[in-house]
Amino acid sequence: MVKKAINxxxxxxxxEMIRFERSKTRIIGSLATPLFFLVILGTGFxxxxxxxxxxxxxxxxxxxxxxxxxxxxxxxLGGVSIIWDREFGFLKEILIAPVSRFFVALGKAIGGxxxxxxxxxxxxxxxxxxxxxxxxxxxxxxxxxVMFLSGIGFMGLGIALASKIDSHEGFQMVMSFLTMPLVLxxxxxxxxxxxxxxxxxxVYRNPLTYCVEALRWYLLGSSxxxxxxxxxxxxxxxxxxxxxxxxxxxxxxV
Amino acid sequence: MHYAIETxxxxxxxxxxxxxxxxxxxxxxxxLFGLLGPNGAGKTTLINMLSTMSDPSSGSAKxxxxxxxxxxxxxxxxxxxxxxxxxxxDRLTGRENLDLHGRLYGxxxxxxxxxxxxxxxxxxxADRADAIVKTYSGGMMRRLEIARGLMHHPHVLFLDxxxxxxxxxxxxxxxxxxxxxxxxxxxxxxxxTHYMEEADHLCGRIAIIDHGEIVALDAPEALKDRxxxxxxxxxxxxxxxxARLCEVYKNNGCANIVSQQKKEIFVTVKEGERQIPHIxxxxxxxxxxxxxxxxxxxxxxxxxxxxxxxxxxxxxxxxEIEQVGYRIRARRK
Lengths: 254, 333
What we know:
The complex is a heterodimer. By secondary structure, chain A is mainly α. Chain A contains 10 helices and no strands. In chain A, helix 3 (about 60-85) packs antiparallel against helix 5 (about 100-130) and helix 5 (about 100-130) crosses helix 6. Mean pLDDT of chain B is about 85; it is low at about 315-333. Chain B is elongated. Chain B is an alpha/beta fold. In chain B, strand 13 and strand 14 (about 265-270) form a beta hairpin. The chains are: A mainly alpha, B alpha/beta. The interface of A and B includes residues 14, 87 and 89 of A.
């Protein structure tokens, strides 16, 4: 039983890895956006901005935000790629196999998250070359765990959406209506300590906020949201979404 | 010993439409069994239920002794299926597609490697195994899918329109593979097709399906023999003449009327060559002018015509459904 489950998860993971390794342009493309942001916004902002009450903004402040953004894009995209599998027919091959749908979804999620983490780590390394000082090696390792947790959450969300959407037109809509607000309404681009009421309500309901805050804590040593709270929210988010995604995927018909 | 497939009044309804209507069939292990019918007849719906892709509305089915609803997982382990549309991962190589399939069906590394070699050589794809599937031709993809369907040594292999959209040469090749694997691997094969020649050429027994029901079931030869000899097609000037002609032959009892169209009737007689003069004589005695006459051996087309009153091909409604089907498939690519 357990062996079969692990085998299913591993098979689906393996497929994602082979596909990832083969799509070099996708890797470069997916890194380009956050990298532009990091270089241009990071440099631009730090040249002019100063927070009220002192403290300058520099590229260090933005690095966790862009890592979080990379994880979000890449995981959501990975989840929604199930729509692609359906369009190109491969989904039938999976659905007809004598294996549990839940573990298929989980394997796909872990595969997608692995690619997301590789990209997140790359951004982290590039930021380090650009002069961002990380607190400690342990902190960096903990940040990778945070990437994993958030990635699973967004991946589960993506799978859940993909199970409900039946066209790639719908997928385009979701991507733009979901990712932009999630990114803008997180702490990726601004500090969240002194937000006006309405904005802070939205920001604190956004899982990405906790991802970015946790990364900030582990990488830079300070965050507005207490780390225990961030981790608790992320764990719950990951569990809830992967359960939802697995469940909806299980009900999927071709 | 159990049947390879045994259905009991299996039915599938989509809203008001009954796609499959109370079908009961039994297929013996090792058979090469064909489901023949126009597009939209319910063949794919039936296959989908037998392969656990969708649940029957009522009735039941067993595949290799396992109930398709209660024992879906056991059914899946025992069947292979090649769908109408490709279900390969086109970013992977042929070998990787087979390997992932083997893993999903719980085969260990050594077994997989050995089996991949076997199925690849069966469909003659060994030399292209490590190319990305995207670079394959339509025929190669179909062959790879057949190979993949066989990977895990299924007892029953379903082929849904295995040669749809392939050129005649590739079609002949695929036919050879299908025969070989039925003979050499002993796999029970159930295929759907709307090509008469395909059913005729390949299948040991055929079920003719129309509007979700089986209208005839037997070996191709037996089905044709049952029509009662050679087919004579007579053309007359008007539907009136045709109706009178029917009367004449019915009363005389010399020919078996297969079907009548607006300006044509098909009759079958034993020893057609010798009977033509007699048949024409009867017509001229009754004063009905005959415009043309032809004689041929019966085909499955005639069998279908006999049972349904229309030809499998020139049915407007059907060909429209078919076109929509192609369009949907084309869009999905």
